UniProtKB/TrEMBL annotation, chain A:
Keyword vocabulary terms for this entry: Lyase
InterPro entries: Phosphonate_metab_PhnG
Native source species: Sporosarcina globispora (Bacillus globisporus)
Recorded superkingdom: Bacteria
Name of this chain's protein: Phosphonate C-P lyase
UniProtKB/TrEMBL annotation, chain B:
Family annotation (InterPro entries): PhnI
One MF annotation (Gene Ontology) recorded for this entry: lyase activity
Protein's UniProt keywords contain Lyase: yes
Name used for this protein in its record: Carbon-phosphorus lyase
């Protein structure tokens, strides 16, 4: 699974999932923390739709961490104040970069968490769609 | 009269700070930041937007410390922001990727995807709800549980639609009602890194407008519509929802699929349609539309609409109207700058005021001398 989808599942899903995957790596490999989780900012670059040009909307607080596993440096970065999650994400990222055998077995776990998130999202969307206006033309 | 440098007041200042703490605490109620975060969504969104820093927890803390005063909370957050390193810049965020929670158009009844009211105060009666005085955790849980049951009974839940909706503007562009445009990926300017100079760039204007003080931005836009401007806007599309944020790997080139998802932010976007008579060949005129653009953190619809109005004003400089003058608008809407300058007037100005008094005394003295000479 590619990083974009994987990080979305691990951040939007239960944080326990990232923890359990990272723990699995920690038990089998030597993990070193190159950068302890620390706060920083990410500037948001957005496209406006009038002239289709770019501008900066503002910054978002993030927690970032770097971890090394089997010579590969993984990065964990998440919006907000989540030092543990940032560390677990970094370990998982390093594991995927090193193509460690454990990552092969994670595909199913990640996929089922993705399904769970989809169900949650759909339920939310359905509730929102109850506020969709149904216009009726009046006889005047 | 000579000027004398003075010092002192340290003890008084320390006691004044204690007094401030006393005012916050003397009712012996501890206001938890979690409660502020959960129950003061509007204020949190306003403070995050004006401070240009998106984090609900920090905004709640700033609001607590500032005793609910937005200008002070924004000041605190801006100061905190300046202590943090900027680690990355996000990949380009496209608002068409917004997961919509509310989306309306005042221009078109039938828009692709429909009019979705979402959470809005627009249709409430604005009568004080005294039941809230007696709201308890139990009543809250009961309501939430009933709401969840109500929604779980929706048929075909598993096949629910994706709420990423087409833009009204794209529809108009396809229809040829507004001219099509290519993306302009020129790097934007950043007013937090380089001071604003005039004439400003579009990216500078939009950045200052989005972090502008909500009341100031709204007031100026209101003035435009009342006649201190030359616009007649309509809301083409207003949407509220979450925008996903992605960051590229700092050292490696990769495909879009190798980006890091870091979370999402809630934002409000307003696309304002401004009709104008465009001059065509042989002196003929034709009605066309321009778009004013507004986007801000959180759900703050008035601000996003007002930003859209001012954006279009500033695209058409006109010294007949202050609202079309970029220097007038951009230099006066920032919360920290305007409240900072106004409130600094209460700080000691003993020396400058004494100097003015001296001038008045001298002038008065000369006048009296002259009157004495005349009377002789």
């Amino acid at each position: 699974m590619k990083r974009k989808k994987r990080t979305e599942i691990l951040i939007e899903g239960s944080h326990e999932l990232a923890k359990s995957l990272a723990n699995e790596i920690e038990q089998k490999y030597s993990v070193s923390s190159l950068q302890e989780p620390e706060h920083g900012l990410v500037m948001l670059k957005v496209r406006e739709t009038s002239k289709k040009s770019l501008f900066y909307l503002g910054e978002v607080l993030v927690t970032e961490c770097k971890a090394k596993v089997e010579g590969k440096i993984g990065i964990g970065i998440v919006k907000g104040d989540f030092p543990e999650l940032a560390y677990h994400l970094a370990v998982v990222d390093a594991a995927f970069l090193g193509n460690l055998p454990e990552t092969k077995s994670w595909a199913g776990i990640l996929e089922s968490e993705k399904q769970y998130l989809e169900e949650k999202r759909k339920a939310k969307n359905e509730a929102i769609l109850k506020t969709k206006v149904s216009f009726e033309t009046m006889d005047v | 009269m000579g000027y004398v440098a003075v010092k002192g007041g340290t003890q008084a200042i320390e006691e004044a700070i204690k007094r401030l703490k006393y005012e916050r605490l003397h009712k012996e109620q501890v206001l938890e930041t979690g409660q502020i975060e959960a129950g003061m969504r509007g204020l949190i969104d306003q403070v995050m937007s004006e401070s240009s820093l998106y984090n609900e927890k920090l905004a709640a803390l700033a609001i607590k410390q500032a005793e609910g005063n937005p200008e002070e909370a924004v000041f605190l957050l801006r100061a905190y922001r300046s202590t943090l390193p900027r680690k990355h810049c996000s990949q380009i965020i496209e608002s068409e990727d917004m997961k919509v929670e509310r989306r309306i158009s005042a221009s078109f009844k039938d828009i692709p995807g429909g009019q979705i009211l979402g959470a809005a105060t627009d249709y409430t009666h604005r009568l004080l709800d005294f039941n809230l005085m007696n709201e308890t955790e139990k009543t809250v849980k009961e309501w939430l549980s009933a709401y969840a049951i109500e929604n779980s009974s929706i048929e075909e839940l598993m096949n629910g639609p994706e709420l990423v909706l087409p833009k009204v503007l794209d529809y108009l562009r396809k229809e040829g009602l507004i001219p099509p445009l290519e993306n302009n990926d020129a790097e934007p300017d950043d007013v937090t890194r380089e001071s604003l100079e005039f004439p400003s760039s579009r990216s500078q204007r939009l950045q200052i407008l989005t972090r502008g003080e909500t009341g100031a931005v709204t007031s100026l836009a209101y003035a435009v519509i009342r006649g201190y401007g030359a616009l007649h806007p309509t809301v083409g599309e207003l949407r509220v929802g979450s925008l996903p944020i992605y960051v590229g790997h700092p050292n490696e080139e990769g495909s879009d699929e190798d980006e890091y998802y870091i979370g999402n932010i809630k934002a409000t976007e307003a696309e304002m349609l401004m009709p104008f008579m465009a001059e065509k060949e042989k002196g003929s005129k034709e009605l066309e539309f321009e778009i004013g653009y507004g986007l801000c953190f959180g759900q703050n619809e008035t601000k996003a609409i007002a930003m859209g109005i001012l954006d279009n004003c500033l695209e058409h400089p006109d010294n007949s109207f202050p609202s079309h003058n970029e220097e007038f608008v951009l230099l006066h809407i920032d919360s920290v700058e305007s409240t900072g300058f106004i409130s600094h007037l209460k700080m000691p100005h003993y020396v400058t005021f004494q100097s003015k008094l001296d001038s008045v005394r001298k002038t008065k003295g000369k006048t009296e001398e002259r009157e004495e000479v005349r009377s002789i």
